[in-house]
Amino acid sequence: MQKFFIALFLLFSLSPAQATEAGWALLRDGGHVVLLRHAMTPGTGEPTNFDIEKCGTQRNLSDRGKQQARKIGALFAARADTTDRVLSSRYCNALETARLAFGDRIVEPFAALDRPAPDGSTLKAQDEAVMQEIRSYSGSGNLILVTHVENITALTGGPSREGEAVIVRPEGEGLHILGRIVFN
């Protein structure tokens, strides 16, 4: 138990660069689950004419966001164990982040990772579906879940930056954050 508290203290006392290095150390071992917030997009919220089937009606990645997604993929390829599976929100900014970073062949759209309804009516069911995926994961590589700040906040109790990776494991009814990787 003492080792746990020491590790927890070190995690919270690390600078972002040190926390990022600690995150990469975890992912080199494989078998972890990563909540990845989609890369950079302009503005906030979706346009009023939003249609999940039409990227032209959604906030899409900016040029900087596309570069960020490619950088995420290159760093995962160079610094982490293999990526077994990538599940992504069906929103175009999340799907494009996943495809640019990890390639089209392993990316699977997963509706439970979509932004929750504005009134919050879908959040509980979505969180349960995501938790089921996380709890049932037993691969030797890493599982990446590309989603939105609202989902990450609901699952972990705290927000993340655009393009930030939050490494988690199930603990009790929720998730325990093991580490973070910040992509500038």
TrEMBL record:
Which interval of the chain is the signal sequence?
1-19
Q: Which organism is it from?
A: Mesorhizobium zhangyense
Q: Mind telling me which CDD domains this protein's record contains?
A: HP_PGM_like
Record-given protein name = Histidine phosphatase family protein
Q: Write out the entry's keywords from A to Z.
A: Signal
Q: List, alphabetically, the InterPro entries matched.
A: His_Pase_superF_clade-1, His_PPase_superfam
